[in-house]
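Annotated sample (chain length 259).
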Amino acid sequence: MRLADSHCHLNYKGVFEQQPEVLARARDAGVVAMLNISTRENEWDAVIGTAEREPDVWATIGIHPNEADSYPDVDTERLVARAAHPRVVGIGETGLDYYYEHSDRARQQASFRSHLAACRQTGLPVVVHTRDAEDDTAAILKEELGKGSFPGVIHCFTGTAEFARQALDLGFYISISGIVTFKNARDLQETARWLPRERLLVETDAPFLAPVPHRGRPGEPAYVADTCRFLAELRGEDVEGLVDATRANFHALFAKTIA
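Output written by the structure step:
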């Protein structure tokens, strides 16, 4: 298998302490591409540094919605400047999180729009986090796309079938994490069955959300193989075919990885 983990945090506690070993296990499992996601400005250098050292790792730059209050000065100009780095292939993760509400909603929305404007300027895809905020997320994406197109992905999708359809209508990809393997994820499993193969990505969100049979452990990119196997069985597809499709989709969306 030649897998792509479209969303992981290689510089987070739980992975960073053993990053060389984690990367070795990923490669042994057939992972050939990993996207190292940033969530705070103070980690951008480290996230990019990992991508500079590792030829199969790329980086994003962005501010997680839960961190929006802490980084009010991260605007479109600053994002565009850092996105020029050759190993930065996307912008985010950004979006809206009304579940934890660690940041003011208006501040989250302003930060989200700044990231989307940076995507318009750079042509890079946006990595969207949304939790308990589907209506506002869809509305902002639709409004900002009206100002000029940009690609993107809804990462770690756990939303409604209706939100999945809205995202697809906007031209977005949808990324499925290890949550799909959980016994209580029946609604997500039903959605994952019908998602168009050409818009599907897989991810670990490591060190979070380790799939069955690794629950209770820190997640790591190697586990994307387990998620892909489960997803293929769920959809009644050949595993190798789905692996190849999701890897091709990863490179199609994050086109700078093959530039």
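Annotation: The first helix runs from residue 19 to 28.
Annotation: The radius of gyration is 17 Å.
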